Amino acid sequence: MPQQVRGVIARSKGAPVELVTVVVPDPGPGEVVVAVQSCGVCHTDLTYREGGINDDFPFLLGHEAAGVVETVGEGVTHVEVGDFVVLNWRAVCGDCRACRRGEPWFCFTTHNAAQKMTLEDGTELTAALGIGAFADKTLVHEGQCTKVDPSSDPAVVGLLGCGVMAGLGAAVNTGGVGRGDSVAVIGCGGVGDAAIAGARLAGASTIIAIDRDDQKLAWATDFGATHTVNSTDLDHDGLVEAVQELTGGFGADVVIDAVGRPETWKAAFYARDLAGTVVLVGVPTPDLVVDVPMIDIFGRGGALKSSWYGDCLPERDFPMLVDLWKQGRLPLEKFVTERIALDAVEQAFRTMHSGGVLRSVVELSGPAL
């Protein structure tokens, strides 16, 4: 029997979000209904609202979520009713060319639920990143559910579903940061700070946090940055020189751009050591263009990489990172700045603009199983 639940939607480009009734169908083959317990407010949700992803309005927002499997459809074997899960937007297919060559973290044919959630009048909703978790319950593909330690705080571990995994994976998986490496991170919001935490976890000896906001630099220090650079008054050359001064005059082994603008990417490119690595994890808008002389690309060597979802494999990475948090080796709880109700998402977007939070997290009542 389809269920009616509360959900937060973006009805049109730029319009304030609305708390409405959402119809969640019974799960079909390979699908599950998850009773959502928490969902982080990610900048990607704001980008959906602003029409920066596509124009498939209305959107059911929310995707950094944790909850409990409530019902399962025919043929579901990956999870069972009662499992505590973190939702992910990389449900690997196992059969595309990336999966077949042993690189499922690049899966090109990820799974989502086949059915659509709707409004009461039957209008189909586009679930953000195939999840749509600013709702009491959501319908997803079974592969989008990753089981983790059920004693975990949903508001904390749910953030692995997007921003924290993207940043941490950019350092550990994409950037290959290792013991003794020097790392610079440009942009110290949630993703940038997760990259700093990942670099620290991997054993980097020098971790340089770069931002224009002193509060964000203070947070970055708390996550493991050994040095901070306020770039407010620095031009391109000044920023590059600041990184070089902190790395013996050479530049960093790995530079991570968590902003995604031409000026930050170029700074990352020139602030790395010869044969160093640049990782772009900040998502640029389609209109942005980088102009770099090809001789510099050739002459500096190294690697220029983009990090998709931290190049993660949820089934491998989420449980491991939860275990590290439980051991006190990864401070995931520090990403949760505030806990809010479902009707406070629009205010959370305004707070996000002010730069006063790493993550606002919506908390819901969850299931009664």
From TrEMBL:
Enzyme class, first EC level, given as a word: oxidoreductase
State if GTP-binding is listed as a keyword.
no
Keywords, comma-separated and alphabetical: Metal-binding, NAD, Oxidoreductase, Zinc
- From the Swiss-Prot or TrEMBL record, what is one GO molecular function term? mycothiol-dependent formaldehyde dehydrogenase activity
Name all Enoyl reductase (ER) domain ranges: 14-362
Which family is annotated? Belongs to the zinc-containing alcohol dehydrogenase family.
Q: What is the name listed in the Swiss-Prot or TrEMBL entry for this protein?
A: S-(Hydroxymethyl)mycothiol dehydrogenase
